[in-house]
Write a structure and sequence with these properties.
By secondary structure, the protein is mainly beta. The protein has a single domain, classed as TolB, C-terminal domain (Neuraminidase). It is built from two helices and 28 strands. The strands form seven sheets. Strands 1, 25, 26, 27 and 28 form a five-stranded antiparallel β-sheet that branches. The chain is globular and about 50 Å long. Keywords: Membrane, Transmembrane, Transmembrane helix.
Amino acid sequence: MEKKHILIFIGCLLSVTLVMVALYASSPINSKIFRANFDRKLLPETALEEKNAFELEASSVYISGVTADKIYISNTFKPLNLWISDYEFKNTHDIRLKLVGVDSLREPSAFRTTVDPPNFFLSNGIMPIAMRGTIDSWEAKKYMPDSSYYFVEAVPISTSSMALKSYSSNQQALHLARKTAIDTPYFKFKYGLLEKQKDGVFCVNGKLHFSKDLHKLIYLYAYRNQYIVMDTNMNLSYRGNTIDTFSVARVKLTQIESKKLTMAASPPTVINGLSCVSKNYLYNQSLLLANNEDEKVFKKSAVIDVYDINQGIYVFSFHVPKYRNNSLSDFRVFNNQLIALFGRHLVVYELNNNNVSINEDFHQ
């Protein structure tokens, strides 16, 4: 595939990801709700308690980091803008990020910011570029060798390495890869982790996460009931399954002969929407209604299924209701705090069950 076609392709994949999040991350997979063949261990509604809320200036935002006392919000269309607040929204301020050695920005909306004190990271898979800085100066510099490999997603593992989801021209498919600033080879595909079912691109779409506490990478497929757990060298630890039964991605494809591209003919059936990792838990927004779930509650909220990464088991689920008629658009978990975005509305919840911590085992 020619370079210009790869750029078009990567751009399309990034656009598709944004559209999927906007249209499907908070909606059932069909306009007609049907019950899937599984049950949930649902926490009561009282387990989620709203603590504080704040209305942001824009809705094109995402959570770029959370700590014990701060929330970091970035803007998709203004990648150098960063908003910082405490959990009570009493102390808020704006930061303008500085990029050293970068004269112009290509595809600004392709930038993603990750704040992980004392460092922060910016990446853009179309340029392609990876930058790092400290929160003392908010000034970022390139910290990875230049590469010709474009990527769809990048997750920092350490100050000198990152995990990528990148397109392999030789394989003509998306694969996970590891990039490092100190070891050779600097870039290496990890073939075989993502398992092709149809085209090797849309059928393997998903979200990549890193747990600092476990030193584990987690990849959650969007269109099938599986997640992958890896060590920091991206060696496979195990493959786990979500509680639904959708083991095969439902993707319809079409060929664009003039550009020698394969694209999705229609929006794929999204099984797993938004997700995050905190300590040893994977939090996954499922778009499937369970046997024992109230349909009215399901339509008015996002259901989050929680999995123990250490044990590879499902633990419990809870509902996050719409906020002022806005659906959940992003979320993070830090200890017992759930930080949730509903468009321009940022809400902090406390999550518990009869004084049982969310980061303790819960079975019923």
